[in-house]
Fold these 2 entries.
Entry 1:
Amino acid sequence: MPYDPMIVKPMREELTAVGFEELRTPEEVDAAVKRTGTSLVVLNSVCGCAAGGARPGVAMAVKHEVKPDHLFTVFAGQDLDATQRMREYFVGQPPSSPSIALLRDGQLIGFMPRHAIEGNMPESIANALTSAFDKVCVKEVA
């Protein structure tokens, strides 16, 4: 049974306020993943021990000069079908909420599961993400 929408509203807004596009249906997930370029996907959740650090860490990271072309989020425990569909794109990764994924042209190229988020300060999460952005999001100069 999904969480009450009023409970998760502030948690959703932490990401949409910094430019993330919410994906709430499987169709929205499929359309988003088909976009070319790099995508940062945050599988958001209510878990205070991990998501409470993940959201501010991600918010810091997307202020970095180099960042993915697209920013997407789905909410585990709320948008159940969208979450399940997005997890299908995280090939080889067990379900993990929260989690953070990097995709390039719809293919998983990086994944930060809950156990890598939990116990870390937002600054550490942001540093790990910006390091990944610097490696995989740089545009090639013609």
Note: The mean pLDDT is 94.
Entry 2:
Amino acid sequence: MAEEENGSLEEGKGKKKPPVLLIIIAVVALLLIAAIAIFAMVLTSSDEPKAGGGAAKSKGATQMGEGSGRVVDVANIGPIYDMDDFTVNLLNENGKRYLRTKLNLELDSEDLLSEVERKVPVIRDYVIQVLSSKRVEEITTRDGKERVKDELVKVLNTLLIDGQVKNVYFITFVIQ
């Protein structure tokens, strides 16, 4: 009988249960890998324009910001008016944040250049009003910059008679 008990003890020792700690580590590792993969997909998908959404683009046209629906036909860019630098205080609790930017205006016709040159002081004033009304959080993202461009185009077009501003291009954009 003692021999039978020893035999059954040896059989029980031969069947090892998987260590619980090893299973926990494997599950945590799989969850970590899945989280990293999801995070990487979210980052890469937000930087690229969405495919298939909207009208077909002509050759040479590129999609700008995701939210704006703005398409720039780089083969047919209109006349560009080069604005001087802008330095504005941003809305902030302590008033110590500012934006330094340089922008260019894309116009729809050559005829508009002379009107823009005559109205530079008024245009600068409107640009300063729009930019200084923004918080840092509003303009640090790509979509935020696109919204500012859209707002500038809309505001500046209220000033013009001979044509319209088609687009605004930020040449420099530094927040401190």
Note: The helical segments are 2-14, 20-47, 112-118, 120-132, 136-139, 142-157.
